[in-house]
Specification:
The chain is an alpha+beta fold and 147 residues long. The chain has four helices and five strands; from the N terminus they run ααααβββββ. Strands 1, 2, 3, 4 and 5 form a five-stranded antiparallel β-sheet that branches. Strand 4 and strand 5 form a beta hairpin. The radius of gyration is 19 Å and the shape is globular. The protein starts with a helix and ends with a strand.
Length: 147
C-alpha cells in the first residue's frame, strides 16, 4: 500500500512530461554554449559546434577552437546575458536570432563593475546532425557599438 502512494504521483508526473520541441532543443544548445563560454571551457562550447562549421571569414571548426582558446586564456571569466531567443526550425536546419550583453567578469558580487562590456546581435545557423543533436553550423556577430 505504501509503495502505491509513491508510485501514483510519479506516474502522474510522467504523464505530464512532454518531449521538448525542436525550438526548445535549439534554445538549449544556445544556453549550453553560453554556459561553456562563461566557464571558459572550450570543450563545452565546441561540443555544440558542427564539424561542418564555416563562416563568411572562412573560419572552420578548428579555427573557432583556436579563437576560443586564445580568448578564454586572455580574458578569464565572462558574463553573458542573453535576451529572448527567436528560433525558426525548417527540417534539419534552424536559425536563432538574439541579443546578448557580454562582459569580462563572472557576474559575482566581487565583480562590482564588469569591464570591456559590449552588446551583440547574434544570428546562428544550426544543423541537426546524424546523431539527432543540433549543432552550430555558422554564426555572425554584430556589435551594438557604432563605428
Amino acid at each position: 500500500m505504501h509503495s502505491l502512494r509513491i508510485l501514483i504521483p510519479l506516474l502522474g508526473l510522467a504523464a505530464c512530461w512532454q518531449k521538448p520541441t525542436e525550438e526548445e532543443r535549439v534554445r538549449s544548445v544556445v544556453q549550453s554554449v553560453i554556459t561553456g563560454a562563461e566557464a571558459g571551457d572550450v570543450g563545452d562550447v565546441m561540443a555544440n559546434v558542427s564539424k561542418r562549421y564555416h563562416d563568411d571569414s572562412d573560419m572552420d571548426q578548428e579555427g573557432i577552437r583556436g579563437v576560443l582558446t586564445m580568448e578564454f586564456m586572455k580574458r578569464g571569466p565572462i558574463l553573458v546575458v542573453p535576451g529572448p531567443i527567436e528560433v525558426v526550425v525548417t527540417g534539419a536546419t534552424a536559425h536563432a536570432t538574439f541579443e546578448a550583453a557580454i562582459a569580462e567578469g563572472s557576474g559575482k558580487w566581487t565583480d562590482v563593475m564588469p569591464v570591456s562590456a559590449d552588446g551583440w546581435h547574434l544570428d546562428v545557423d544550426f544543423v541537426r546532425e546524424e546523431d539527432d543533436v543540433w549543432r552550430v553550423q555558422n554564426h555572425t556577430l554584430t556589435s551594438w557599438k557604432r563605428p
